[in-house]
Amino acid sequence: MKLTGAHIVWESLAREGVGVVFGISGGAVIHLYHALPEYPIRHVLMRHEQAAAHAADGYARATGKVGVCLATSGPGATNLVTGLATAYMDSSPVVAITGQVPTSLIGKDAFQEVDITGITLPITKHNYLVTEVESLPMVIKEAFHIARTGRPGPVLIDIAKDVQADSLEYEYPEEVNLPGYRPTLIGNQRQIKQAAQLINEAQRPLIIAGHGVMLAGAEAELGELVGKAQLPVVNTLLGLSTIPETHPLCLGMGGMHGEAYANKALQEADLILNVGGRFDDRLTGPVSTFVPEAKIIHIDIDPVEIAKNVPVDLPIVGDAKNVLQALIPLIEPTSHPDWISKISKWRAESARRDILEQETDDLVPQYVVRHIWHATRGNAIMVSDVGQNQMWEAQYFLHQKPRGLLSSGGLGTMGFALPAAIGAQMGKPEETVWVTAGDGGFQMNIQELATVVQEKLPLKMAILNNGFLGMVRQWQQFFFEGRYSGTPLLGPDFARVAEAYGIPGFTVREKSRVVPAIEQAMATDGPVLIDFIIEQEENVYPMVAPGGSIGDMLRRPQPEGVSGQKGGDSR
Amino acid sequence: MRHTLVALMEDKPGVLNRISSLFRRRNFNIESLTVGHSETPGISRMTIVSEGDSTIIEQVEKQLYKLVNVTRVTNVTDEPAVIRELALIKVTASSAARSEITGLVDIFRAKVVDVAPDSLTVEITGTEDKVDSLLGLLRPFGIRELVRTGRVAMVRGNNGQKKLEIRD
User: Fold this and answer.
1) Same domain, A259 and A162
2) pLDDT for A185 beyond 70
3) I need a surface site. Which of A44, B16, B59, B158 has the fewest CB within 10 A?
């Protein structure tokens, strides 16, 4: 059949299984929007293209399917950049489609022309500029293939306006031919055998479970391995939820704001099995001081990650699910009672210092997050923003279900949570989706409240409002003489802003009101926003000072200890 | 240490940009980079000389291979390989100096490819060392213009192509 370029795009997207796209219209995509109503694809009109990219990313993270966003040329395209960089850093499968000025005007500095393929070169897995309708079907086929296979990532397709109008006898290719793109999925059997031997011989083994476990859908295999050899697990931020945090061998997050006992376990382990983590600097601290006693096995689908940040003793390139499936039969059932009881002692010591064990009437954010966990019984998709709120969420919500936490880990993009949650809720309409954000990050994409109402999404939104860009304020308090420069933050009355959009909004100032407000939110059918006015100078503990070893953490001062400090937890 | 990498890539718009962008983005050092057609239509061949320790060069190789348009990468530094560079040197040559210069050119088996009243243009092919040596000898006469292509490399014998596969 003969189709225009615009029809080819939608027809091909439909064949790739795309049911929803997040976008904003414009002159260079007007042909695409003209053809859209003829296809069974739901378009979510966002209020900013950055949010469209985050929504596609959130959709992808929640569902494992490719998320699609759409923007016009020029400023529409450049507004995608932060969202694409976020997706790229966190290996999220996104296809971004942008309109480009007509082929005859490319290079002439035409109205709303920008070199978006040039701009996005280092923040996409691959990108395309389409200047002939003949190449369009194959480009779309390749883009989806590249985005979702191997180590997933964003792919951008920039389509000149005249290409969208040109016609072609349409045939969608069955296969791609990419000689330079052959991801290694199956691990080397000899290396897997060596890994099994190292694991079987280890006295103090420890797994680092990263985002790769989730991307490979290897949660069941991870659980089986952990159970078979009684291997404790430390998660990276994006690895949280790959093993239930209620599992006795799950130590939660490690690294800069990780659990003290998780970091101690890392530093004393004699074997590290890193499954799908990339040894990010927020986990390792200075590499020279990281896991000093351990041999390191690193399983990653991307060969580039092997020895990029940390030298490894045994690399295995492959898909985490395949590699773990091959590894498990070679592992001898065992337990490490001394090692595990040592970790348990560290854990008990941390528990005694937990702020939630302290008698206080202060409205602390940890209390809010923990009660969202109680109210949802852990059965929710949490979408956190960036900063202190992100760390409190990671520490105090016990993630129990796969893909239960979506957060901008690599790029650390404030403003991610609300639009990403819109994408997640579109992809998982039956799930409870909670946003936790600070008052700073929430204001960075607050306009998307309109999209929440427009799409009738029952998002539950918790703002942990301390009137500061809190993480930077914390650094200023600790390391920059307490000079709060550029961090005190004026915010609106968020509840009234929500009401103005037609969303029920509450303000909670007292600890006693936290639980009723959360329960009321859960009992409400539609969206709800709760503005929790928390202790302004509450800090995230424990903390590794910049440049310090992860074994050397700043702990929360105890109540009878240093004066002038609130609270008393040191998780 | 200096490493010589040979990469094969699809001959598509923007591929050179992807490679130079990668080197800049990853903070890798390029000493020279040459690109041209290979024996396969649609496939370009690039020779890259980069300075770095083996860990860095391994990253360079893997990052290059990660580019979708790059089909093969190999490090030929430790392979028996033919390595060549071409240079054109325009040197000041008064009639008095001309015979001395042509003498040097002969010793290096280089060629004079252009003669002007007060200059000679010399073409030399060889390793960088050889080019450097001739340049050093010509410099006292006055180098007016110089262009060097950068290194190209090919593994000797018939084991080259097979070794280019970094996977399998």
Assistant:
1) no
2) yes
3) B158
